[in-house]
Design brief:
358 residues, mainly alpha
Length: 358
């Protein structure tokens, strides 16, 4: 007799089986979508791999695409491990970019590295303040953080639209198809790590690696990390332990939003060099997917960010070479998330065969 039972512990072999099945399922489902859209799955996947890893520049491009996803994913890990459902990453990315752009208008006379530090801190503060606001609404008025963070997304998006469409940051004197700001001061662009133009891999990648180490140490090796994990499992017990849970919630939302804000600043000053909503929207939602696929662990988020960064980077070449519809890449991301979430659930159960004697 075969039955399914909840696991009492963890098994590396079973976890590998579940997630390997998830990868295979996502691959086959994506291939099916490609075939239904009239494309050649083999040619499309070959072009995707070439565009993501086929050359040094392609690899750097994948790492550059992975950088903001890694930062947003890490911020999501901090919030979700505490079971604080911060869904405001889209707005926090935009707020970080906006605050960084505003800071850049005032630091042009400072030495380069000091100006860069101010811009990075401004990006952190932009996203952090927005996250802190949602946390304050929850602690003061008991507002559900899902609702507040989603609504704040719209407020920030429309405020940016005002600034760029007839507002003080609108680019004037040229005819453009997008609402955007003038280019940032070239002297304030974030330095690229290798030859200029090599995939636009900038210093923000090092910030993301440092943030990964910071989050790993924070969650697993500090008292604050213990409180974050305890808040996610039993906030009542944590409250009786004497922890100020309101302050903890504010700290979590501040850190989560700050990392998303840094992602926005990095995209603006390291990649696009213009403040434009179209280049920033989607990073926040993709970062949430990265965090979930990464199992809400910093090490897993790094791998997931690289995977989705490669997917986004290689998708451009895949569309050019195979004519794959642009929307199919988003569908592939959704399939990966779906299969990985199913695999995460499957790892908590085991198949047991028992002998039944009459």
């Amino acid at each position: 007799m075969i039955s399914i039972q909840r696991r009492s512990g963890s098994s590396l072999r079973w976890n590998v089986v579940c997630f390997s099945a998830a990868i295979l399922g996502a691959f086959l489902s994506s291939a099916t979508l490609l075939a239904l859209s009239g494309g050649d799955a083999v040619k499309a996947f070959s072009a995707l791999f070439t565009g993501a890893f086929g050359s040094q520049n392609a690899l750097f491009g994948s790492l550059a695409k992975a950088t903001p996803l890694l930062l947003v994913g890490l911020g999501t890990v901090i919030a979700f491990r505490a079971k604080i459902w911060n869904i405001g990453q889209e707005g926090q990315v935009l707020a970080g970019a906006m605050m960084a752009y505003w800071a850049s208008l005032m630091v042009g006379s400072l030495p380069y590295w000091l100006a860069l530090s101010v811009i990075a801190l401004a990006g952190l503060s932009g996203g952090g303040i927005l996250g802190l606001l949602a946390g304050y609404l929850k602690t003061r008025f008991h507002t559900n953080e899902v609702i507040s963070t989603v609504m704040l997304n719209y407020i920030v998006i429309f405020f940016l639209a005002y600034l760029l469409d007839g507002g003080p940051w609108m680019e004037t004197g040229v005819t453009v198809a997008y609402h955007q700001s003038p280019p940032v001061n070239p002297a304030l662009e974030w330095p690229e790590l290798f030859a200029r133009g090599a995939g636009k891999l900038h210093i923000g990648f090092l910030f993301a690696l440092a943030a990964s180490a910071f989050c790993a140490i924070l969650i697993d090796r500090t008292s604050l990390g213990y409180d974050i994990r305890a808040f996610g499992s039993n906030p009542t017990a944590l409250r009786f332990r004497g922890t100020n849970v309101r302050r903890l919630l504010l700290v979590v939302m501040l850190l989560s939003g700050a990392l998303a804000g840094l992602a926005g600043a990095g995209e603006l000053f390291g990649t696009s060099h213009r403040l434009r909503a179209e280049t920033l929207l989607g990073i926040g939602s993709s970062g949430i997917v990265v965090a979930m696929v990464g199992g809400l662990r910093p090490s897993g988020v790094m791998l997931a960010a690289l995977f989705f960064g490669a997917l986004k980077s290689g998708a451009i070449y895949m569309r050019l070479q195979s004519g794959t519809p642009a929307g199919l890449v988003s569908a592939m991301e959704g399939l990966v998330l779906l299969f990985f979430l199913c695999a995460a659930v499957a790892t908590k159960f085991q198949i047991v065969r028992s002998n039944v004697h009459a």
